[in-house]
Amino acid sequence: MRKSGALLAAVHVGLRDIIKPGISSMEIEKFADNYITSHGGIPGEKGFEGYKYATCVAVNDEVAHATPRQNLILHNGDLVKVDMTVTLDGYQSDSCWSYAVGEVSPKIQKLMDVTKKALYLGIDQAVVGNRLGDIGYAIQHYTEDENGYGDVRDLIGHGIQPTMHEQPNVPHYGEPHKGLRLKEGMTITIEPMINEGTWQIMAKEVSDPNDSWEYYVTADGGWSCQYEHTLAITKDGPKILTSQDPIADAKYL
Ligand code: MF3
Ligand code: CO
Ligand code: CO
């Protein structure tokens, strides 16, 4: 899973140079699909429940599961979330990252900073003996009580390996000391989706007559941000398997 996660992380590192004003969201898909397959991996989202792409690419008020689109051009100031899974030698990894297109407004930069910190506050609770509610509470308290954002309820983190989605469900909200107790050897994702406004989201159908895929947008049109890591719970603490940054993540490697 570390190797799979390293390949996925390398795709995200590569995307830093690809994502610029003027590209289409389909160019993100092409880069990721090609990078994964040319390094011996399989894009895990392709074929998953009828999904056609290696990546989900959600822009601004789109929350998750959005498809890459040739006619969706990224503009300066947009916020784009790229989520993908990789299978390498039978091992899964799953990571979403948020990217500023050109320069985002200070308001959106703050949403990005808070969402990334929320992910890491959740990871800090992923220690043996804690409970799932400790992870959820840390994220919800920081994003909603301290920052006034909306913390999406309808989509959650999950166990991972041998398939993409395993038990347990990992909600990004909850109460301290409640829920399943975390054990050594569990592999899970934490992937908070944090909205500027309400936490509520709405399903929308893609506008392709040959595709019945549904994705999500915020209910109030506010923008949404997401970061996701795959991690292993070990007796030495949480280990991030999809790290892109050996310096910032040093204590989680
Ligand atoms: N990567 C997503 C997750 O975090 C799953 C996307 S499923 C897809 O769980 F079919 F939309 F790709
Ligand atoms: Co996930
Ligand atoms: Co994901």
TrEMBL record:
The lineage of its organism: Bacteria, Bacillati, Bacillota, Bacilli, Lactobacillales. Removes the N-terminal methionine from nascent proteins. The N-terminal methionine is often cleaved when the second residue in the primary sequence is small and uncharged (Met-Ala-, Cys, Gly, Pro, Ser, Thr, or Val). Requires deformylation of the N(alpha)-formylated initiator methionine before it can be hydrolyzed. Binds 2 divalent metal cations per subunit. Has a high-affinity and a low affinity metal-binding site. The true nature of the physiological cofactor is under debate. The enzyme is active with cobalt, zinc, manganese or divalent iron ions. Most likely, methionine aminopeptidases function as mononuclear Fe(2+)-metalloproteases under physiological conditions, and the catalytically relevant metal-binding site has been assigned to the histidine-containing high-affinity site. Its cofactor is Co(2+); Zn(2+); Mn(2+); Fe(2+). Monomer. GO terms for biological process: proteolysis. GO terms for cellular component: cytosol. Pfam families: Peptidase_M24. Belongs to the peptidase M24A family. Methionine aminopeptidase type 1 subfamily. Substrate binds at residues 65, 165. InterPro entries: Creatinase/aminopeptidase-like (IPR036005), Pept_M24 (IPR000994), Pept_M24_MAP (IPR001714), Pept_M24A_MAP1 (IPR002467). Keywords: Aminopeptidase, Hydrolase, Metal-binding, Protease. Residues 1-235 form the Peptidase M24 domain. The keyword Protease applies. It is an enzyme of class 3 (hydrolase). This is Methionine aminopeptidase. One of its GO terms (molecular function) is metalloaminopeptidase activity. It catalyses: Release of N-terminal amino acids, preferentially methionine, from peptides and arylamides. Its EC number is 3.4.11.18. A divalent metal cation 1 binds at residues 83, 94, 228. The keyword Hydrolase applies. A divalent metal cation 2 binds at residues 94, 158, 191, 228.
